[in-house]
Amino acid sequence: MIDAGRVPESMDYYRRLIEFCADWNYNTVQFRLADDQGSALRFTSVPDLVIHRNAFTADQLHALAEHAHTHGIDVIPELESFGHTGFVTRSPRYSHLLDTDAHGDSEFSGIIPVNSESADLFAKLYREIATIFPSRYLHGGCDEVNWGGSAISQAALKQKSRARIWADYLNTLNQTAGSLGKDFIVWGDFVLHKQPDILGLLSKNIILMDWDYAETNPRKLSDTLQVVRDNGSRCIGAPALSCYRWGARVGTDQLKNVEAFADSYLDHTNAAALGVMVTNWIPSRYLQRSVWDGFAYSAVALNEGSEIARAEGFRRFVERHYNAAWNDQWRQVYQMIYDDAMSFSGAEAALPKMTVPWSSSDELATVLRQKATGPTPFSILRELLAPLEAEVKKNRVDFQSFLLCVDMLAYSSARNALVVEQAGKSLAHPEADAEFIRDISSRDQSLTRALENDWDEGRPADSPARTELLFDLQPKDQLLFQWKQATAYSTLLAEHPGKFQELLRAAATH
Hints:
By secondary structure, this protein is an alpha/beta fold. Helices cover 50% and strands 9% of the residues. It contains 19 helices and ten strands. Strands 6-7-8-9-10 form a five-stranded parallel β-sheet. A three-stranded mixed β-sheet has the order 2-3-4. Strands 1-5 form a two-stranded parallel ribbon. Strand 9, helix 9 and strand 10 form a beta-alpha-beta unit. Helix 16 packs across helix 19. It is globular. The mean pLDDT is 95.
């Protein structure tokens, strides 16, 4: 899955991704066209939507779909049509369609399902999408919805149940898709889990996409698949590689999530199981060229099952992508990069929690309250990788990006530990504080330049995600932007070391 709705990337990268998918026996790419941040397609049928600066024309995306077709890849367009519809409701022209309920999940929003204008608007957008993408499928989104706050929805809820309104709206979208010759797909979080009474009211030909990014037990996924089959419906499994739990690298549990879906849906005797879509969210969280190994591993799991993936997935990647000889050192690298990945969620209790680089006085004060730590696994990992670089005979730029990712993770942890250590020395040796923060500033600048160069290889240099915090995203979602912020702050402290000394002394006295 390509999350262009959050951050559009370059067309050259998308073409390369499609070629990689074909080489590793994927047969489908899901292309998310829009989200709360904006639309990655420059629609012409509906004016005044919120459009990304680096959005694509219809001709560009049609050419991409045709390129994919020549490689045996079907490109399924996805357009958020209920929740995640800020690309519509953030526009002054359509703000009256916002339906957020103050008593619902404040993280999400929705469009009014009982206003005929909503369905009419998406009918126009679906028709335009249908002329661009030849796929037999159209994904309508409809996950993480918070709706019911508008007067028109409140009135409707006095006449019908929430489940009935949900189903009526999705069935209307399905009829529109069907009139265009498309099989309609929706996310399954509400339909299957949060409000399962919707399921029985849906048209049976609507395809559900069951997403769960934490489940690692294939039996539980199979149980949900059985519910879908008993209802007479069909389902696509949707694990994740990149998701809300992680930063630049994901952990072993995320591979297990992919494995569980693969093993559940590999039962080709189950007519309800249409396959698995590996989701990959918010590109600005990770270095684009550093994560090919996860895509390759997932491909092996989907095609041959989890046992083969665990035994051969990374070996095949190293041999095919880097044209390097597999050995025990490579094995250690891939075991460590996944086993030691730090999570933002804190769910992985045995590992340190991932944090964004400190870029303000408050954030630095928080770090200074921590205890000093020793070398991180990423420092050890970097030492393992150093001699392997000479073995890489193919796709060296990808390996360099992988190295940069490890360097960044190692330095991110060390940066915290070093400043805590310096605080402990500051009272005895205050003259060293200025030199210390100048060194941090210099290292920050060097890393940020490298991250900018990496970004520019496959993402637009003028992308807002590079220079500003996007609507409804968090600092952890924008790796490069946060390092730019951190660098600006450490440079400011280097220019005014007295301020840095004040912060260190304040920490020492507490």
